[in-house]
């Protein structure tokens, strides 16, 4: 089982590394967001008594990079359908769940790479880690977020057949997830309905975990964040595996 996982993981890594425009854009986009919002809204946030906005914003933008970088991994499933590679993979004498896990870990790895690159970039914008000792915990949260949403992207890719429709539908799903995650603004003082939706959002716990491990400020607690992410990941893994098993060869 480990062999197919490693092969699918390496395939995703090679595809990402060979596409230089994709590699550059995946790093440049969150950097632009961080600079524009950090410098643009930072003074307003500080005047409102919110403190240093760059310190607050950086974990949120990191979560955004991981979200977008991992969930769009699902579009490769659609292209694999179009070119026949998925059919060849599914008829191979290996468990389908190993193909699913390898594909998901590959997408998560490329997303984590984007996050790791963004960390030193944020330093030049003014962000400071609370402690370097928490870097392993930060990377753990990066991987949990990326693996979770890579599974979400694959699940949607398994149900769709039109590669051109995938970005439209996935954006319809992940834009609300992003804005209701507390990435750009605190969720504590929002209306009750919005706060409830934010607490049902798995990315909220990912961003909170990143913020807690990067700045020492956490609303839910690190242990709670990890627990929720693991539970949702397991649920999505079961759903994704079911959809993968239903794919026709």
Features:
249 residues; mainly alpha; 0% strand; globular
Description:
By secondary structure, the protein is an all-alpha fold. It has one domain. 79% of the residues lie in helices and 0% in strands. Helix 2 runs antiparallel to helix 3, helix 6 packs across helix 11 (222-246) and helix 7 (135-159) packs parallel to helix 11. The longest helix has 30 residues, at 96-125. It is globular, with a radius of gyration of 18 Å.
Secondary structure: elements and pairs:
Elements: H1 2-18, H2 20-47, H3 53-71, H4 75-83, H5 85-90, H6 96-125, H7 135-159, H8 165-179, H9 192-199, H10 202-215, H11 222-246
Domain ABC transmembrane type-2: 21-247
InterPro entries: ABC2_TM (IPR013525), ABC2_TM_bact-type (IPR047817), ABC_2_transport (IPR000412), Nod_factor_ABC_transporter (IPR051784)
Protein name: ABC-2 type transporter
